[in-house]
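I am still getting used to backbone structure tokens and would like to learn alongside you. Would you supply a protein for us yourself, any chain you care to pick? Start from the sequence, derive the backbone structure tokens from it, and show both lines together. Go ahead whenever you are ready, and we will take it from there.
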Amino acid sequence: MSKPCILGLTGSIGMGKSTVAAMFAGEGVPVFDADAAVRAMQGPGGKLIPQIEAAFPGSTDESGVRREHLGEQVFGVGAALARLEGIIHPAVAAERQAFLLEHAGAPMVLFDIPLLFEKGGADRVDRIIVVSAPPEVQRARVLARAGMTPQKFSQILALQMPDAEKRERADHIIDTGTSLAETEESVRRLIAELAGCQA
């Protein structure tokens, strides 16, 4: 029995990844959003709250994870970050597996994974799609976000693989430096091109 072709969608901050993921969903492609899964599991009543609280006392309350409090315990502490990732990553993997089972009959599914290359997830997908835009477009988008500063932007970029390297490692690139209509057309063309890619 064939299984869905698994597309891995990634891209640096401000490149339009969420917008492109929504376009795939709009075309009927099931989308697994890793960040959204984590937010749900860390939100009010989230299933990871007891484990996180046990490992990092005082880091949660009835609203879920208290990001500042958790950040204070984890930021810059390698062992603490590894402990947190040891709680989160297996849970995300289980959610992803359940998603795959739910959509086993689909011709393709999309995994929206911001740190696909950085966290070693590239070997779990059949095709890698990188969203990319010119640096000046990226910078303008990110600095327009509430609370963002040039310094914060630089720090985030330093933690991410450079866009040029992502583009080199991609199977497909979607340029988001164009109009939304042109980006949507690129998404539709790619879906048509990948129609027969399931394993």
User: Anything to note?
Assistant: The longest helix spans residues 78-102. The longest strand covers residues 5-10. The domain at 5-193 is CATH 3.40.50.300 (Rossmann fold).
